[in-house]
Amino acid sequence: MLAAGSSALALYFARRVITPARFRDADQEVLAVIREGRGLQVILAATPDATVDGVYGFFFDGGRGHARIGRILSYSPAERTVLREVETVYSGDISTARRGWWSGAAYPDPAAIGLSADDVLIDVEGGTAPAWLVRAVPATEDTVSDVWAIMVHGRGASRQEGLRAVRTARDLGMPSLLISYRNDGLAPSASDGRYGLGSTEWRDVEAAIDFALEQGAREVVLFGWSMGGAICLQTADLSRHRQLIRAMVLDAPVINWVNVLAHHAELNRIPSSVGRYGQLMLSHPLGRRLTGLAAPVDLKAMDWVSRAVELRTPTLIVHSVDDEYVPYGPSAELAEKNPEMVTFESFNTARHTKEWNVDPERWERQVMAWLRQQLAPRVNPGDQEPAAGQSTPG
C-alpha cells in the first residue's frame, strides 16, 4: 500500500513538472485600492513577493487586467499588509480586483516601453508561432545591426518577460525578436502537450534563428529566463546554427534540472526517494506511458555543471542568491568550472527571474557592459598593431 502511494505521488510530481498549467493561481490578495491625488495606491497582503521593493507586473481578473506596481510606501509586519504605489494600469479595473498574481513582466507589450514592434509569425513544427520584432535604431560606430537578440521566456511565462531586456539590446544596436514556443499558449502545442524542459523547445528557438537569418541577421545573442535559459543552452549545444550564437545572457537559468526537481520535491515536502522516482519516470523510456511524454527527457544531458567544459558560447548568468524557485548554486558552480566562457553576476533579495525588477539600472548596466565586450569587432591576429617597442616583420 505504501509503495503504491509513493508511486502515485512520484507520478503526480513528474506530471506536474511537464504539464502546462491552464490557469494561474491568483495567490496575491488585494485588500484595498486608494486614490491619492491623481494616482493610485494598493494595499496588499504581505506575501514574500509583495514585500520586496522594485517594480513588478500584477495580473488580475483572470489575466485580463494588468497593472505596473511600484515602490513600497509602507509595510506593517504586525498587520501583514504592504502599501505600494500603482504606477500604471494597462488594462482592467484594479479598484474591483480582489486577487491576482505577481509577475516580473512589468510591461504588457513593446508600446508600453515606448517602442513600436512588428507582429511576425515564425514557422515552427505544427504551424506558426507569433513573435514581436522590435527593430534596431540605425547603426552607428558603436552599434551592430546584423546581430539580433532573441528573447526566450520561462516556463509558464510569456514573451512579455523579455521586454525588460529590449532597451538594452536596442542601445547596443540589436533588433529584438521576442518569441513564443510550444505549449506557452501562443505557439502551437507540442504533439504530446508536454514540456520537454528544453529538450524539445530548443527547436523553436532554432526556427527563430532561421527567421532572423532570413531577415538579414548574421549572428544572434540569446536571452533566456529560467527554463528559457535551459532552452538556450540546448540551442547552443544542438542547433545547426550554434556557431552563429555570439553570446548568451541567462537570467536565473535552470543549469541542472536534477537540482531544481530535488529542490521542488523538498519545497512540497515530498520524500527525496519519491522525488528521485519522479525523475526516473521523466527520463526512462518506460515512463512515457505514465507521464504522457512522446519521448523521455534526458536530464543528464541538461546538467551543465557536469558538462561545464562543453559550453563554448560566451555566457553571462545573472542570478539572485535569494531565488526561491531555481537555486543559484549550479549557476555559480558552472561559472567556477568554466570561467573562460561563463561570467556570473549575483543579485540579492530578488525572487525568481526578478533581478531586473529589483534593480533595473544595475541589471542593464552589467548586461550592457558585458555584451559590449562580446560584440566588439573581432580583431584578426594579422591586423593587430605592434606593441610599443616592437617592429613589424619586414
TrEMBL record:
For molecular function, the Gene Ontology terms on record are: hydrolase activity
Family annotation (InterPro entries) = AB_hydrolase_fold, DNA-binding_regulatory, Hydrolase_4
| Record domain Serine aminopeptidase S33: where | 203-353
- What Gene3D superfamilies would the database entry show? alpha/beta hydrolase (3.40.50.1820)
Keywords on this record?
Hydrolase
Tell me the leader sequence span.
Answer: none
Q: Which domain of life is it from?
A: Bacteria
Q: Name one Pfam family in it.
A: Hydrolase_4
UniProt-listed PANTHER family = ALPHA/BETA-HYDROLASE (PTHR43358), ALPHA_BETA HYDROLASE FOLD-1 DOMAIN-CONTAINING PROTEIN (PTHR43358:SF4)
Q: What is this protein called?
A: Alpha/beta fold hydrolase
The organism named in the record is: Arthrobacter humicola
- Organism lineage string: Bacteria, Bacillati, Actinomycetota, Actinomycetes, Micrococcales
